[in-house]
Amino acid sequence: MFTSRRKKINIITRFRSIIHKRPDIAYKIAATLLFIIYILVFQYLMVLENQPKNANVITAIYWATTTIATVGYGDVVFTSPAGRLFSIIVQVVGVILISSFLVNYVITPWMDRVIKFRLPRKVSAGMKDHIIICGYNQLVETLIDELAGQDLLFVIVDEEEELIRELSYKDIPCILGVTSDKETLINAGIEKARLIIANKSDEKNANIVLTAREFQHLSIIAIVEDSSNSKYLKYAGADNVVSPKSMFGQFIGKKAMDKLVSRVTGATEIFEGIHIVEFPIYLKSPLIGKTIKEVSSQRQFTGAKIVGIWKSGTLSFDPKEEDVIKENSVILAVGTPEGLSKLKKLTH
Protein backbone atom coordinates (compact mmCIF):
# COMPACT_ATOMS: atom_id res chain seq x y z
CA MET A 1 0.00 0.00 0.00
CA PHE A 2 2.76 2.41 1.00
CA THR A 3 4.79 1.40 -2.06
CA SER A 4 1.82 2.17 -4.30
CA ARG A 5 1.35 5.55 -2.65
CA ARG A 6 5.03 6.38 -3.08
CA LYS A 7 4.81 5.50 -6.78
CA LYS A 8 1.82 7.81 -7.18
CA ILE A 9 3.64 10.61 -5.37
CA ASN A 10 6.73 10.09 -7.54
CA ILE A 11 4.62 10.20 -10.70
CA ILE A 12 2.92 13.41 -9.58
CA THR A 13 6.27 14.95 -8.61
CA ARG A 14 7.81 14.06 -11.97
CA PHE A 15 4.77 15.41 -13.79
CA ARG A 16 4.97 18.71 -11.89
CA SER A 17 8.69 18.91 -12.63
CA ILE A 18 8.08 18.41 -16.35
CA ILE A 19 5.31 21.01 -16.37
CA HIS A 20 7.54 23.47 -14.53
CA LYS A 21 10.40 22.98 -16.99
CA ARG A 22 8.21 22.77 -20.09
CA PRO A 23 5.21 25.12 -19.76
CA ASP A 24 4.43 24.47 -23.44
CA ILE A 25 3.51 20.90 -22.50
CA ALA A 26 1.05 22.21 -19.89
CA TYR A 27 -0.48 24.45 -22.56
CA LYS A 28 -0.91 21.55 -24.98
CA ILE A 29 -2.40 19.26 -22.33
CA ALA A 30 -4.84 21.95 -21.19
CA ALA A 31 -5.89 22.73 -24.77
CA THR A 32 -6.43 19.03 -25.54
CA LEU A 33 -8.53 18.45 -22.41
CA LEU A 34 -10.57 21.56 -23.15
CA PHE A 35 -11.21 20.39 -26.71
CA ILE A 36 -12.42 16.99 -25.45
CA ILE A 37 -14.75 18.72 -22.98
CA TYR A 38 -16.16 20.87 -25.79
CA ILE A 39 -16.90 17.74 -27.85
CA LEU A 40 -18.70 16.02 -24.97
CA VAL A 41 -20.72 19.12 -23.99
CA PHE A 42 -21.63 19.73 -27.65
CA GLN A 43 -23.06 16.23 -28.04
CA TYR A 44 -24.94 16.48 -24.75
CA LEU A 45 -26.55 19.81 -25.69
CA MET A 46 -27.45 18.58 -29.17
CA VAL A 47 -29.35 15.69 -27.62
CA LEU A 48 -31.17 18.09 -25.29
CA GLU A 49 -32.13 20.28 -28.27
CA ASN A 50 -33.49 17.30 -30.20
CA GLN A 51 -30.78 17.47 -32.86
CA PRO A 52 -29.61 13.84 -32.65
CA LYS A 53 -28.17 13.87 -36.18
CA ASN A 54 -25.55 16.39 -35.00
CA ALA A 55 -24.75 14.53 -31.78
CA ASN A 56 -21.77 12.65 -33.16
CA VAL A 57 -18.01 12.98 -32.74
CA ILE A 58 -17.23 14.16 -36.29
CA THR A 59 -19.79 16.96 -36.19
CA ALA A 60 -18.66 17.88 -32.68
CA ILE A 61 -15.02 18.16 -33.81
CA TYR A 62 -16.10 20.19 -36.85
CA TRP A 63 -18.19 22.58 -34.72
CA ALA A 64 -15.55 22.96 -31.99
CA THR A 65 -12.80 23.66 -34.53
CA THR A 66 -14.73 26.29 -36.49
CA THR A 67 -16.06 27.94 -33.32
CA ILE A 68 -12.68 28.10 -31.57
CA ALA A 69 -11.22 29.62 -34.73
CA THR A 70 -14.18 32.07 -34.77
CA VAL A 71 -15.01 31.17 -38.38
CA GLY A 72 -18.29 29.35 -37.68
CA TYR A 73 -20.25 28.80 -40.91
CA GLY A 74 -23.69 28.75 -39.30
CA ASP A 75 -24.60 25.29 -40.61
CA VAL A 76 -24.50 23.74 -37.13
CA VAL A 77 -26.06 25.97 -34.48
CA PHE A 78 -27.63 25.83 -31.06
CA THR A 79 -31.17 27.10 -30.56
CA SER A 80 -31.42 27.05 -26.76
CA PRO A 81 -30.06 29.79 -24.45
CA ALA A 82 -27.74 27.24 -22.82
CA GLY A 83 -26.36 26.21 -26.20
CA ARG A 84 -25.79 29.79 -27.31
CA LEU A 85 -24.09 30.63 -24.00
CA PHE A 86 -21.84 27.61 -24.53
CA SER A 87 -21.00 28.89 -28.03
CA ILE A 88 -20.03 32.31 -26.63
CA ILE A 89 -17.77 30.72 -24.01
CA VAL A 90 -16.05 28.54 -26.64
CA GLN A 91 -15.47 31.55 -28.91
CA VAL A 92 -14.05 33.75 -26.13
CA VAL A 93 -11.77 31.00 -24.83
CA GLY A 94 -10.79 30.23 -28.42
CA VAL A 95 -9.65 33.80 -28.99
CA ILE A 96 -7.57 33.65 -25.78
CA LEU A 97 -6.01 30.28 -26.69
CA ILE A 98 -5.18 31.29 -30.25
CA SER A 99 -3.75 34.63 -29.11
CA SER A 100 -1.65 32.89 -26.46
CA PHE A 101 -0.41 30.36 -29.00
CA LEU A 102 0.54 33.03 -31.52
CA VAL A 103 2.31 35.18 -28.93
CA ASN A 104 4.25 32.34 -27.26
CA TYR A 105 5.05 30.10 -30.21
CA VAL A 106 5.02 32.36 -33.27
CA ILE A 107 5.49 36.06 -32.51
CA THR A 108 7.88 35.81 -29.55
CA PRO A 109 10.26 33.26 -31.17
CA TRP A 110 10.27 35.35 -34.34
CA MET A 111 11.04 38.53 -32.40
CA ASP A 112 13.77 36.72 -30.46
CA ARG A 113 15.41 35.68 -33.72
CA VAL A 114 15.20 39.24 -35.02
CA ILE A 115 16.50 40.79 -31.79
CA LYS A 116 19.28 38.20 -31.63
CA PHE A 117 20.91 39.76 -34.66
CA ARG A 118 20.53 43.22 -33.15
CA LEU A 119 22.21 42.48 -29.85
CA PRO A 120 25.11 44.90 -29.31
CA ARG A 121 28.44 43.42 -30.35
CA LYS A 122 30.64 46.51 -30.37
CA VAL A 123 30.98 49.71 -28.34
CA SER A 124 30.90 53.10 -30.01
CA ALA A 125 34.14 54.26 -31.60
CA GLY A 126 34.31 57.27 -29.29
CA MET A 127 34.26 55.28 -26.05
CA LYS A 128 37.53 55.55 -24.12
CA ASP A 129 38.99 55.50 -20.62
CA HIS A 130 36.25 53.07 -19.64
CA ILE A 131 36.01 49.89 -17.57
CA ILE A 132 35.36 46.50 -19.17
CA ILE A 133 33.54 44.05 -16.90
CA CYS A 134 33.55 40.44 -18.08
CA GLY A 135 30.65 38.67 -16.41
CA TYR A 136 27.64 39.85 -14.45
CA ASN A 137 26.15 39.10 -11.04
CA GLN A 138 24.34 40.92 -8.24
CA LEU A 139 27.42 42.60 -6.83
CA VAL A 140 28.38 43.83 -10.30
CA GLU A 141 24.83 45.14 -10.60
CA THR A 142 25.39 47.25 -7.51
CA LEU A 143 28.87 48.24 -8.68
CA ILE A 144 27.68 49.57 -12.03
CA ASP A 145 25.00 51.61 -10.29
CA GLU A 146 27.76 53.36 -8.41
CA LEU A 147 29.99 53.65 -11.48
CA ALA A 148 27.13 55.32 -13.31
CA GLY A 149 26.63 57.62 -10.34
CA GLN A 150 30.29 58.63 -10.56
CA ASP A 151 30.00 59.21 -14.34
CA LEU A 152 32.50 56.43 -15.02
CA LEU A 153 32.07 54.70 -18.35
CA PHE A 154 31.81 50.91 -18.40
CA VAL A 155 30.64 48.04 -20.56
CA ILE A 156 29.52 44.53 -19.61
CA VAL A 157 30.81 41.69 -21.80
CA ASP A 158 29.21 38.26 -21.76
CA GLU A 159 28.45 35.36 -24.08
CA GLU A 160 24.95 34.69 -22.73
CA GLU A 161 22.44 36.10 -25.19
CA GLU A 162 19.58 36.20 -22.69
CA LEU A 163 21.66 38.21 -20.23
CA ILE A 164 22.81 40.69 -22.88
CA ARG A 165 19.24 41.03 -24.13
CA GLU A 166 18.04 41.77 -20.60
CA LEU A 167 20.82 44.31 -20.00
CA SER A 168 20.05 45.95 -23.34
CA TYR A 169 16.41 46.32 -22.35
CA LYS A 170 17.63 48.10 -19.20
CA ASP A 171 19.91 50.39 -21.26
CA ILE A 172 23.00 49.05 -19.49
CA PRO A 173 26.09 49.27 -21.76
CA CYS A 174 26.92 45.75 -22.87
CA ILE A 175 28.08 43.66 -25.80
CA LEU A 176 27.69 40.03 -26.76
CA GLY A 177 30.77 37.92 -27.30
CA VAL A 178 33.12 35.31 -25.88
CA THR A 179 34.81 37.10 -22.99
CA SER A 180 38.25 35.57 -23.60
CA ASP A 181 38.21 36.21 -27.35
CA LYS A 182 40.58 38.94 -28.53
CA GLU A 183 38.15 40.21 -31.15
CA THR A 184 35.41 40.51 -28.52
CA LEU A 185 37.67 42.54 -26.23
CA ILE A 186 38.69 44.76 -29.14
CA ASN A 187 34.98 45.27 -29.85
CA ALA A 188 34.65 46.24 -26.18
CA GLY A 189 37.23 48.98 -26.76
CA ILE A 190 40.07 47.37 -24.83
CA GLU A 191 42.62 49.43 -26.75
CA LYS A 192 41.21 52.58 -25.14
CA ALA A 193 40.01 51.12 -21.83
CA ARG A 194 41.56 51.93 -18.46
CA LEU A 195 40.67 48.73 -16.62
CA ILE A 196 39.30 45.26 -17.24
CA ILE A 197 37.63 43.11 -14.57
CA ALA A 198 37.56 39.35 -15.14
CA ASN A 199 34.50 38.17 -13.24
CA LYS A 200 33.77 34.72 -14.68
CA SER A 201 34.91 31.29 -13.45
CA ASP A 202 38.57 30.92 -12.48
CA GLU A 203 39.31 28.97 -15.66
CA LYS A 204 37.62 31.54 -17.90
CA ASN A 205 39.24 34.37 -15.97
CA ALA A 206 42.68 32.92 -16.72
CA ASN A 207 41.91 33.00 -20.44
CA ILE A 208 40.54 36.54 -20.18
CA VAL A 209 43.69 37.71 -18.38
CA LEU A 210 45.99 36.04 -20.92
CA THR A 211 44.17 37.76 -23.77
CA ALA A 212 43.96 41.14 -22.05
CA ARG A 213 47.64 41.05 -21.09
CA GLU A 214 48.54 41.60 -24.74
CA PHE A 215 47.48 45.20 -24.16
CA GLN A 216 50.26 46.51 -21.92
CA HIS A 217 48.62 49.81 -20.93
CA LEU A 218 45.69 48.08 -19.27
CA SER A 219 45.14 47.37 -15.58
CA ILE A 220 43.68 43.91 -14.99
CA ILE A 221 41.70 42.74 -11.98
CA ALA A 222 40.74 39.08 -11.71
CA ILE A 223 38.05 37.86 -9.33
CA VAL A 224 38.95 34.43 -8.00
CA GLU A 225 36.43 31.90 -6.70
CA ASP A 226 39.03 29.57 -5.20
CA SER A 227 41.82 31.52 -3.50
CA SER A 228 44.25 28.69 -4.27
CA ASN A 229 44.03 29.73 -7.93
CA SER A 230 45.20 33.27 -7.21
CA LYS A 231 48.82 32.57 -8.09
CA TYR A 232 47.86 31.15 -11.49
CA LEU A 233 45.90 34.27 -12.35
CA LYS A 234 48.91 36.31 -11.26
CA TYR A 235 51.13 34.23 -13.52
CA ALA A 236 48.65 34.81 -16.36
CA GLY A 237 49.21 38.55 -16.00
CA ALA A 238 46.60 39.92 -13.60
CA ASP A 239 47.74 43.07 -11.79
CA ASN A 240 45.51 42.23 -8.86
CA VAL A 241 43.64 39.09 -7.87
CA VAL A 242 40.76 39.56 -5.47
CA SER A 243 38.84 36.93 -3.55
CA PRO A 244 35.11 37.54 -3.08
CA LYS A 245 35.66 37.05 0.63
CA SER A 246 37.74 40.23 0.51
CA MET A 247 34.66 42.21 -0.46
CA PHE A 248 35.85 42.94 -3.96
CA GLY A 249 33.08 45.47 -4.51
CA GLN A 250 34.99 47.93 -2.31
CA PHE A 251 38.27 47.21 -4.04
CA ILE A 252 36.95 47.56 -7.57
CA GLY A 253 35.07 50.75 -6.79
CA LYS A 254 38.19 52.40 -5.43
CA LYS A 255 40.37 50.93 -8.16
CA ALA A 256 38.12 52.31 -10.88
CA MET A 257 38.40 55.83 -9.51
CA ASP A 258 42.01 55.76 -8.39
CA LYS A 259 44.70 53.67 -10.06
CA LEU A 260 46.99 54.24 -7.09
CA VAL A 261 44.79 52.11 -4.86
CA SER A 262 46.22 48.62 -5.18
CA ARG A 263 45.06 46.76 -2.12
CA VAL A 264 41.92 46.07 -0.15
CA THR A 265 41.71 48.15 2.99
CA GLY A 266 39.79 47.32 6.12
CA ALA A 267 37.15 49.95 5.37
CA THR A 268 33.72 48.96 4.13
CA GLU A 269 32.92 52.11 2.19
CA ILE A 270 32.72 51.47 -1.56
CA PHE A 271 31.95 55.00 -2.67
CA GLU A 272 31.13 58.13 -0.78
CA GLY A 273 27.97 57.38 1.15
CA ILE A 274 27.75 53.77 -0.05
CA HIS A 275 28.87 50.95 2.24
CA ILE A 276 29.07 47.18 2.14
CA VAL A 277 28.61 45.25 5.37
CA GLU A 278 27.86 41.78 6.74
CA PHE A 279 24.88 41.18 9.02
CA PRO A 280 24.39 37.99 11.08
CA ILE A 281 20.79 36.82 11.32
CA TYR A 282 19.70 36.43 14.93
CA LEU A 283 17.20 34.01 16.45
CA LYS A 284 14.19 36.36 16.52
CA SER A 285 14.81 38.09 13.19
CA PRO A 286 11.66 38.50 11.05
CA LEU A 287 13.85 37.71 8.03
CA ILE A 288 14.21 34.05 9.03
CA GLY A 289 12.31 31.80 6.65
CA LYS A 290 12.01 34.45 3.97
CA THR A 291 13.56 34.17 0.53
CA ILE A 292 16.04 36.64 -0.94
CA LYS A 293 13.28 37.74 -3.32
CA GLU A 294 10.91 38.51 -0.46
CA VAL A 295 13.55 40.47 1.42
CA SER A 296 14.67 42.31 -1.72
CA SER A 297 11.12 43.54 -2.20
CA GLN A 298 11.58 45.44 1.07
CA ARG A 299 14.44 47.44 -0.43
CA GLN A 300 12.07 50.35 -0.93
CA PHE A 301 11.72 50.49 2.85
CA THR A 302 15.36 49.86 3.80
CA GLY A 303 17.34 51.36 0.91
CA ALA A 304 19.80 48.44 1.14
CA LYS A 305 20.33 45.50 -1.19
CA ILE A 306 21.46 41.96 -0.38
CA VAL A 307 24.32 41.01 -2.69
CA GLY A 308 25.70 37.96 -0.92
CA ILE A 309 24.92 35.30 1.65
CA TRP A 310 26.99 32.85 3.65
CA LYS A 311 25.72 29.30 3.16
CA SER A 312 27.39 26.26 4.70
CA GLY A 313 30.57 28.21 5.29
CA THR A 314 30.70 29.53 1.72
CA LEU A 315 30.03 33.11 0.67
CA SER A 316 27.88 33.29 -2.44
CA PHE A 317 27.97 36.57 -4.35
CA ASP A 318 25.17 35.45 -6.62
CA PRO A 319 22.34 34.40 -4.27
CA LYS A 320 19.28 32.95 -5.93
CA GLU A 321 15.88 34.55 -5.43
CA GLU A 322 14.60 31.32 -3.89
CA ASP A 323 17.45 31.07 -1.35
CA VAL A 324 15.98 31.05 2.15
CA ILE A 325 17.50 33.07 4.99
CA LYS A 326 17.99 30.87 8.01
CA GLU A 327 18.94 31.37 11.61
CA ASN A 328 22.68 32.06 11.95
CA SER A 329 22.97 32.96 8.27
CA VAL A 330 25.12 35.95 7.40
CA ILE A 331 24.02 38.31 4.65
CA LEU A 332 26.16 40.81 2.75
CA ALA A 333 24.38 44.06 1.95
CA VAL A 334 25.16 47.27 0.09
CA GLY A 335 23.52 50.62 0.66
CA THR A 336 23.57 53.95 2.43
CA PRO A 337 24.28 54.08 6.19
CA GLU A 338 20.61 54.91 6.79
CA GLY A 339 19.41 52.02 4.65
CA LEU A 340 21.82 49.56 6.22
CA SER A 341 20.74 50.73 9.66
CA LYS A 342 17.12 49.90 8.82
CA LEU A 343 18.13 46.49 7.48
CA LYS A 344 20.18 45.83 10.61
CA LYS A 345 17.07 46.28 12.75
CA LEU A 346 15.39 43.51 10.76
CA THR A 347 18.22 41.09 11.53
CA HIS A 348 17.56 41.09 15.29
End-to-end CA span:
47 Å
Count of domains: 3
**Shape by Cα distribution:** elongated
- Biggest sheet strand order reads 3-2-1-4-5-6
Count of DSSP strands: 11
What is the CATH-assigned architecture of the largest domain?
Answer: 3-Layer(aba) Sandwich
- Calculate the mean pLDDT score and round it: 78
pLDDT under 50 segments (min length 5)?
247-268
Under CATH at level 1, the class of the largest domain stands as Alpha Beta
**Rg result:** 29 Å
Structural class: alpha/beta
User: Strand fraction band?
Assistant: 5-15%
By CATH, the superfamily of the largest domain comes out as NAD(P)-binding Rossmann-like Domain
CATH fold label of the largest domain: Rossmann fold
Largest sheet geometry: 6 strands, parallel
Q: What is the H/E order?
A: HHHHEHEHEHEHEHEHEEHHEEEH
